[in-house]
Amino acid sequence: SSELTQDPAVSVALGQTVRITCQGDSLRTYFVGWYQQKPRQAPLLVVYGRDNRPSGIPDRFSGSTSGNTATLTITGAQVEDEADYYCNCRDSFGNHVFGGGTTVTVL
Amino acid sequence: QQLLQESGPGLMKPSETLSLSCGVSGVSISHINYLWAWIRQSPGKGLEWIASIYYTGTPYYNSSLKSRISVSIDTSRSRFSLRLTSLTGADTAVYYCAREWGEGTGWFLDSWGQGTLVTVSS
After folding, report:
1. Consecutive 10-residue runs of chain B (122 residues): their mean pLDDT?
2. CB–CB of A49 and B103 under 8 A?
3. Among B6, B38, B45, B47, which would you mutate to test the A interface (most chain A Cβ atoms within 10 Å of its Cβ)?
4. H helix or E strand, kind and range, residue A48
């Protein structure tokens, strides 16, 4: 299957750790990218590959993959981390596949 | 600092053909490490990749949209374009252009335009 599955929503207390998961067979073969999207803004790449962050992304964002599951971890969540998060990878047909997105609420 | 900027009509009628363009600045559109991509997002929905194109003109299309889409690139003007035919209301979305690059087995969209809303309505 070329689908990527994410939980629709998750909440986290301020300063605590939240994990956002993404499941799909393509993750066994292809590296994942994680995107943060705030309302009325374009998505922003926050984590990619094994566990890399683009310049300017805080180190509280990290990623991992095991088997068919990729995880984005926010360690010490901040108010500004409240957003939608999308996972993404290529599939064997060359398509970019996005997960359905997870809305993170910081309490 | 690289910048991508979409341009095109905001309102289209069903059955019409949409043409969007993306201007690229701050980076060479002919850079061998990059692809140039189109992604859309229907109101309140998730992201959908449409297509990507290399500076040589080699395109990569979403299988589900392939019959209706074409992409092109003009390196002399540092622009790339999307054409989507036979529009329906389901094509109403914010359309983004983005830069894509690869590392290992991954391809990542690391720079995005601000997006342009296209509404399909009679």
Report:
1. 90 98 96 96 96 96 95 98 98 98 90 97 96
2. yes
3. B47
4. strand A44-48
